[in-house]
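Subject: Sanity check before I submit

Could someone independently write out the structure tokens for this chain? I want to compare against mine line by line before I put it in a report. The sequence has 116 residues.
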Amino acid sequence: VQLQASGGGVVQAGGSLRLSCTASGSIFRIATMGWYRQAPGNQRELVATITSGGSTNYADSVKGRFTISRDNVKNIVDLQMNSLRPEDTAVYYCKLAVTMLQEDYWGQGTLVTVSS
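---
Independent answer below. Compare away.
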């Protein structure tokens, strides 16, 4: 399984960005997909997840601003980020997890910088 993340960049506070992660392989359809982020000096933290059935979960800090979605035909998981804040600045990683197989895969990360 390979994960390719894209869409990061520099945006002013209050702006929007859309991250995309494309996965190889048919395992995508049964996997829980997630976006995580890691700011300098901080541990990697959960941003949002979406199960194979479409159930979503968000960190409190992004609720109401970020939306995770997936396309099981194109093997893509997106993260729409609105009302961005400087504290959202981080490297964002996508993750594919299949609990029943005990398999986790990570993408390479994409940098999001929000200027004040």
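---
OP: Matches mine. For the report I'm noting this point. DSSP finds no helices and eleven strands in the chain.
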